[in-house]
Amino acid sequence: MISAADTFLASQAQMLNTMIEAAQTSNIPLNATQRAYAELLEAMTSTLDARSHTGKTLATMTAIGRQSAHREMMEGCPGGVPPSLTQAFEEIRA
To answer: What is d(CA 89, CA 50) in angstroms, rounded to the nearest whole number?
Structure first.
């Protein structure tokens, strides 16, 4: 999940860079670019907030898991447990 957020942040950063380059080579009004930059930066901030909350949730669940004899249960995952998630749990338990 954290990796997906990082990939998304990188995409947003590339989008911002593209927007800036386009604005520099055209006659787009300042208020239009300002609004577009602000909207994208707000989206990036929300992504960072979600990443932070996800990290805190994972840390909490890891702490609970270390105190429990139960193994992780991924009931309801379509197609079963994703290998990347299984590997992440194994790394956390190590």
So the answer is: 20
pLDDT in tens, 31-61: 999 999 999 999 999 999 999 998 888 888 8
Instruction: Give the separation between CA 92 and CA 2, rounded to whole angstroms.
Output: 14
pLDDT for 26 equals: 92
For the beta carbon of residue 81, count every other beta carbon within 10 angstroms. Answer: 13
Q: What's the pTM?
A: 0.62
Assess contact for 34 and 69: CB atoms under 8 A. no
- State the Cα–Cα distance between residues 11 and 72, nearest whole angstrom: 32
Query: What's the full length of the chain, in residues?
Result: 94
Smallest CA-to-CA distance from 4 within 90, 89, 84, 94 is with 84
Mean pLDDT within 83-93: 67
- What's the gap between Cα 93 and its chain centre? 23
CA 41 to chain centre: 14
